[in-house]
Amino acid sequence: MPGGFTLIEVMIALALAGLVVLLAHRVFTGVVDGAERLGVARTALDRQANARRSLTEMLGSLDVGTEGAGGFAGRPERAEFTTWQRVPTGWLERRRVIIGVEGGVLVARSDQSLALQDSVSRVEFDYLLEPGANAAWVREWISPVSAPVAVRVRIRRVAAIDTLLFIVGPRG
């Protein structure tokens, strides 16, 4: 019997090698897909955190009751006020901001639009009259000289409702 491999042994070895390569490909593809999904989820979380940070800054640096600032107009479906916003050059400028839902997106609109959250079916604003355990929330706050103590924002999406609470800065 001569040394070497039979054709059947070579075919079995090639089949096993092909199976190993196929399984390795599936493992690496799964890792790459998982990394891509993780990147997408991280981007979404970053965007959501940046939106909340922007809202906190906007409501925390209100300019109500001063000359040329305009008042605070809070309605159940949107809020409009003047605030100090950071501009690309690095300093703060006074801007009029309107926050509401446009085409299923929660948007803060001033001289340019900032998308805060996607897939929004409805937004509801409530305004705190005064601090305290028995304080009342109202559905509207319209005043040329003052702002509420806090703003509660309920963002309704298909499967969830997010409730955000923002303490208002200088109230006029």
Number of strands: 10
Multimerization status: single chain
- What radius of gyration results from the CA coordinates? 28 Å
* Global morphology: elongated
Q: SSE order in H/E notation?
A: HEEEEEEEEEE
Strand order of the largest sheet: 5-4-3-2-1-8
Structural class: alpha+beta
| Proportion of strand residues | 35-45%
Percent of residues in helices:
25-40%
Uncertain regions: pLDDT < 50 for 5+ in a row?
A: none
Straight-line distance between termini: 102 Å
User: Number of folding domains?
Assistant: 1
**Chain-averaged pLDDT:** 88
The number of helical runs is 1
Largest sheet: 6 strands, antiparallel
Q: How is this structure best summarized?
A:
This protein has 172 residues and is α+β, with helices and mostly antiparallel strands. It has one domain (1-172). It is 31% helix and 35% strand.
Topology:
Elements: H1 7-60, E1 72-74, E2 79-86, E3 92-102, E4 105-109, E5 113-117, E6 120-128, E7 137-138, E8 141-143, E9 150-157, E10 161-167
Antiparallel strand pairs: 1-2, 1-8, 2-3, 3-4, 4-5, 6-7, 6-9, 9-10
Description:
With 172 residues, the chain is an alpha+beta fold. It is 31% helix and 35% strand. The chain has one domain (1-172). The protein is built from 1 helix and 10 strands; from the N terminus they run αββββββββββ. It is elongated. The chain starts with 6 loop residues before the first helix and ends in a 5-residue tail after the last strand.
